Amino acid sequence: MVLAILVILACIFIPYFSKLREADRRARCADNLRAIMDGLRQYASLRNAKGQELHAYPSVIYDPAHNLNGYVAYSGADSASPFAKGTAVRPNDVTASLWLLVRQGLAPASRFICPSTHNSADAMLTNGRQVPANLRSNFTDGSHLSYSYASPFSSAAGYQMNDDSHVADFALMADKNPGIKGKTDSINGPSFDSQPFDLARANSNNHGKVGQNVLYADGHVAFQTTPYCGIGQGAKRDNIYTALSPIPLSPGQRPPVESNGYYGHEIGPSWTNDSYLLPTDND
Asked: What's the predicted TM-score (pTM) here?
């Protein structure tokens, strides 16, 4: 009888405490994104003070001649500088762009780890030896980065990555894009009006596909149970993990923001407020 009571109590309290633990992890994850937002704003302010690109968020070299709208990830981590001649960091590297915050001491590597994942802060090892963040140029690999960043690389008319060019509900960062290769991952499969179970296929893996913390351009963070949570109205919103179009749109052109969208290394944000958060779990 006592054993039966204990089993019943365990069935009640174990899920309860698991739910509390995940709620705490979500809160700490949201706090990470707020801290990164502080770093982004500081970076933009420093660029502005130096008379460089006004209010610009971090980005490494853009190569419109050879990679007009696409992206790469995790290249050249051991390079001393992403901007030096002969660096191994490839142009249009979205993760090296984020590393600039770590490199300049504006956000520690630990802030880029969601506590609900098995990821770990980058140990910053070069040839087996730990080196300072300012002598490295990228996250070593995806196991040291839990978040995705709005790609800075696009030829779309009017698209800029700075602290005064986007509307409030532009998604600037979020829990990492799940991509398309996992057994349950399909970022452009479900439509905006799909049932929750189907929508979950396009949610981040960080929180068990229940949803994702999203950092918006105005600085607030919200936990969203659908990837269709960017610019728009009501449920008809931009899928933050896909591009609205496979090619940049013409000036003045605006597609239905709630379209499933497109994914690929060769494409980028296609419109002024098109959130395309990268890297993905596949990179």
From this structure: 0.91
